[in-house]
Amino acid sequence: MDLHQLTPFLSVSPQITAADVGLAAAKGFKSIICNRPENESEDQPDMAEIRSAAERHGLAWHYQPVISGQITDADISRFRELMESLQGPVLAFCRTGTRCCTLWALSEAHHLDADAILNAAQNAGYDLSAQRERLQTMATHESENPVRATGRRHEVLIVGGGAAGQSVAGSLLQRNPDLDIAIIEPRQEHYYQPGWTLVGGGVFERRETVRNMSDVMPQQVKWYQAAAHAFEPEQRQVVLEDGERLGYSILVVAPGLALDWEAIPGLKDTLGQNGVTSNYLFDLAPYTWELVQSTRKGKALFTQPPMPIKCAGAPQKAMYLACDHWSRQSRLQDLQVEFCTAGAALFGVADYVPALMQYVEKYGIQLNFQHNLVSVDGSGKTAVFNVTDPEGNTTQIEKAFDMIHVCPPQRAPKFISESPLADAAGWIELNPETLQHSRYGDIFGLGDAGNTPNAKTAAAVRKQAPVVAENILRALKGEAPRAVYDGYGSCPLTVERGKIVLAEFGYGGKLLPSFPEWLVDGKQPSRFSWMLKEKMLPWIYWNAMLKGHEWMAKPEVLRHRPTEQEAQEACNFADKK
């Protein structure tokens, strides 16, 4: 629990869980204010559980949702009224605590000096200097509307501190250590998501896949521990959740994607119980391994939604590792395993399908193509699928299960899909080669939220980051981007414990192997590929990729094409020689 005391009466915190409520009660808090709207993000805990925990522990609960980046005078007045009516000490929380701190600061502006308010916020760990003008305005009652002045400005502003954001920052700093870079990222943890499949397969411990964000954030980078709310590309500004506006010369947008658990009715309510799991969540991957160990007979379902999704092979990986365990424990003959995919093929690149089919047949897996999961009844142990036949007709069927591993539908985050940066489908509109925005030349994007037709994997980011870094430095000089991305992505398909089919491919399904065939044939299961996945790639991720070391990832830079004048001058020079 991350508490920040503003006054003896009020402390603020990032998102809390139901388990944190008991700790809050033990620390003497009497009231809780939630300033975060429900369903603001896919990783948000269930609000009803937190409220129920507050009631159990005798804490007063107050729900005052405030929209990120849009703190109104009405919000401020309501917060002030709450503070005047509640029994303290009071704990207020939102996604990062910034909104709560800002509400408190603005609610105190009528009687406290702006410097005193900002110092108190700074001592609590929140930099609200961008609110100074609004604080002063409210103190003199000169305006009822928020001040919309631009705050601080950076040469390069990066939205997202995940694999993509950190990697491009690292690549930039390797090229120019003096570059002024800032990252907007609300999370306090950084996850190695490719490891979650191995957690679900009993190979990794969950703790091996997470580090403190502060430990991976470059020291030269300014970290805004807040959520981005909106983009104002015409003004070269990003709006944060507290209303602060950050300016930039170059913007990099790398927020990742959103897991849409709500799109499947019943799923969110039963995740982590009733045999329903998913390796797509840090908290649930260990439950996958628990289920694999405890399931001895019956039916096991593994699902895959319509594309695009990150790591399109992950649903299969979970299935193959489970089947390998059941086979080693002599349980597989008592289990009916089904792969239910919304797609029409086992894998998008045909060259790798024969090797995968050998394992499908070895494990006796039933393949159900064009089966899209649409609802889950956890207590009833049933799942409903929309099934599309070759003529395009859709019917619904119900399947019982003893265990189900679900890959959720995935979309761009709402603040991306509703922004000027999005294409018609809601993804960041990028040039697939240069990764420059198609309409805004001072904006680049990479990672899972882009609309480029590559596999959404960490391996893709490893190749994208150097391209973006190279093109950013050219853009800062006023030059056109010349580094190009070939669509490279990699999907190490864990077909059994100790062997992997190493799928590596680019745009159009072109095979792009990293190693000579005599060392590893990616189209066949390999122990070398398993060693790469288990031992080498995690180390490369933490110690090379995030730090900008571009081993086997140097960008291809197109040669400069001379203008007619340059060509003529070259010819004249040659004639003189």
From TrEMBL:
Task: Tell me one GO molecular function of this protein.
Answer: hydrolase activity
The opening ranks of the lineage are: Bacteria, Pseudomonadati, Pseudomonadota, Gammaproteobacteria, Oceanospirillales
Question: Among the record's GO biological process terms, what is one?
Answer: sulfide oxidation, using sulfide:quinone oxidoreductase
Report which superkingdom the organism of origin falls in. Bacteria
List UniProt keywords, sorted A-Z: FAD, Flavoprotein, Oxidoreductase, Quinone, Transit peptide
* The protein, known as: Sulfide:quinone oxidoreductase
User: Which coenzyme or cofactor does it need?
Assistant: FAD
Name the PANTHER family for this protein: SULFIDE:QUINONE OXIDOREDUCTASE, SULFIDE:QUINONE OXIDOREDUCTASE, MITOCHONDRIAL
Beta-lactamase hydrolase-like protein phosphatase-like domain residues:
2-109
Q: Which SUPFAM superfamilies match?
A: (Phosphotyrosine protein) phosphatases II, FAD/NAD(P)-binding domain
Which residues belong to any copy of the FAD/NAD(P)-binding domain?
Answer: 155-272
